[in-house]
Amino acid sequence: MDIFLQQMVNGLTIGSLYALVALGYTMVYGVMRLINFAHGDLVAFSAFVGLSVYGSLFSEGTTSLLAVVSVFLLSALVVAFVGVLLERLAYRPLRTAPRLSAVVSALGAGLVIQNSVMLIWGPNMKIFPTDFFPSTLWSVGGIVITFTQVMILSFSSVLMVGLYFFINQTKIGTAIRAVAIDQDAAKLMGINVNRIVMIIFIIGSALGAVAGLFIGAYYRGITFDMGWMYGLNAFVAAIMGGIGNIPGAMLGGLLLGLFNAMITGYISTQWAETFTFVLLIVILVFRPTGILGEKVAEKV
Amino acid sequence: MMNKTSLIALLLLVFAGFYPLFVDSAWLAVGTTFLVFACVAFSQDIILGRAGVFHMGHAMFFGLGAYTTAILNVQFGWAILATWIPSVLIPMACAFALVAPIIHLRGDYLLVATIGFNIIFIQVLENDVFGLTGGPNGLFGIDVVRVFGYDFSSQIHMYYMAFILLGITLFIMRSLDRSKFGRAMFYIHKDDIAAQSMGISLRYYKLYAFILGAGIAGAAGSMFSVQYSAVSPEAFNVTQSIMFFTIVLVGGSASLPGVLIGTFVMFVLPEMFREFETARYLVFGVAMILTMILRPRGIWPVKFGNIPSFLKKEAK
């Protein structure tokens, strides 16, 4: 039972990270019908930016609220800026091109980001500062919860609930939903589609940046090519939930995180990815558009 | 009179035929691998370019062919020649068994599912199932082709075997264009809903494309394992699948010269710039973005008029 609860906590932690990254995939897909293959590399990039911000502004071993806030804010800003730049340079010129051309462009952009990170920070694994979060841990009824896990769980829930209300209650959120349904109609209603796409990239990249920093703080070791693995898992989560669907990405992320934790806790780590994809394929066989995805009738 | 395209094709053929006489062994190996990769790229094009199925796991079928030859030869002592048939049939059977249940999925969902197959395939290889696959190191010591006591063992032999394989693949591609399958593909590509209303079964033709593509990739895989006399999992991972996927789109989908150019650009060019080890893929990524922006349909897109040529001929 202890293992079960412990794996539950670990799974929810990883799941929240997947969910944050999956939101970036799903929002871009919802509006542009594009699989943004560069998103995972933005997540990795963020961890390295955070590393440099912490290293240059604070002396080694600083644990303070100021450090955490400034690292998060500055990294999110930098990554959001790169995300917007990415959209401008690599995706906007291809908005009317065949869909797969934009996918190739995204793959190219991923290569560019990944190799830039390698050239700037070097090809070796870097260790994220251990004092970034206090190393406090709590023991509750036999299970151990670290401060970092509490931070991840609480902050990502706040972000996800916030995003849900932002999309559903605000004027910009309504515009985002309108553009996702029909770009031309949205344009006719006076919505600036380019601005909405920019906002999507800002939000998606910033959420990815938060996830990247948490990945650094939680797993410690960060490598320039780690974005591929986290990106792929998050993308699978977005597909499981139904891509384009925001609550779907959150659900898919948490589900995948829990499933992964249970598989690695009880069955095997060697076959973890196989189980992930078998789950995905089984879900898709029974629900071809994911758990929360709607059936879209083909327009003729 | 010969048109420009046929002239270029003839020149290329002559060049490819005499290529081994001009180059050293390293470049000869690059040439052989180019021919093998071109076969795989054509088979990817049948699925992605012609049938329009978003498929990003093609290295799995390539790898299945390679591992079939390797396992049968190294573990069971079959002659290479005898492994050729199973190395085509096993990928075809796997394509049918794996893809049939999910062929109805919409584009992007299918794309992730095919990536998933590829990743599962790699884990199966790395975990050394039944002690057959040799784990992360793979298998080595694969034999050469022997016919009536004669060994086709030199690099030049390898090159010409790959050359013949590409010839067969090109012949299949040409025949496809003029077959019932090719015509069905053409209409599905133009408008799949209209095609379905005319009685063309999307499911059947998409599956047909997958099985045919898997067979060709398997044959190429077998050739690949013989060329290097070794196989290892990383030669068939998702990165390779992404390369084949990109080759087709960068070159121009459903276009024979396009796929050849794509293979050259994505495989041979990086080999040429090996000395710029670190910055190479950065430039490469930029080039991918620029190619797509400047030529969204690929470097050498296929020229489809409103009336396909096979219909024009009959109208005359």
How many β-strand runs of chain B?
4
Give the mean pLDDT of chain A: 91
Q: What is the name of the CATH topology of chain A?
A: ABC transporter involved in vitamin B12 uptake, BtuC
Main beta-sheet annotation of chain A: 2 strands, antiparallel
Strand content of chain A: under 5%
Low-confidence stretches of chain B: none
Mean pLDDT score of chain B, rounded?
A: 88
Helix count of chain B equals 13
Order of helices and strands of chain A: HHHHEEEHHHHEHHH
DSSP strand content of chain B: under 5%
**Strands in their spatial order, largest beta sheet of chain B:** 1-4
Query: How many distinct beta strands of chain A?
Result: 4
- Rg of chain B is 20 Å
Global Rg of chain A: 19 Å
The CATH class of chain A is Mainly Alpha
Total separate domains of chain A: 1
Please count the helical segments of chain A.
Answer: 11
Q: Describe the biggest sheet of chain B?
A: 2 strands, antiparallel
The geometry of chain B reads as globular
Task: Give the SSE layout.
The complex is a heterodimer of chains A (300) and B (316).
Chain A: H1 2-32, H2 39-57, H3 65-91, H4 99-121, E1 126-127, E2 137-140, E3 143-146, H5 147-169, H6 171-181, H7 183-188, H8 193-219, E4 221-222, H9 226-241, H10 246-267, H11 272-286
Antiparallel strand pairs in A: 1-4, 2-3
Helix pairs in contact in A: 1-5, 1-8, 1-9, 1-10, 2-3, 2-4, 2-8, 2-9, 3-8, 5-6, 5-8, 6-8, 9-10, 10-11
Chain B: H1 4-22, H2 25-50, H3 58-74, H4 80-99, H5 107-126, E1 139-140, E2 145-147, E3 150-152, H6 155-178, H7 180-190, H8 192-197, H9 202-228, E4 230-231, H10 238-251, H11 256-272, H12 280-294, H13 309-315
Antiparallel strand pairs in B: 1-4, 2-3
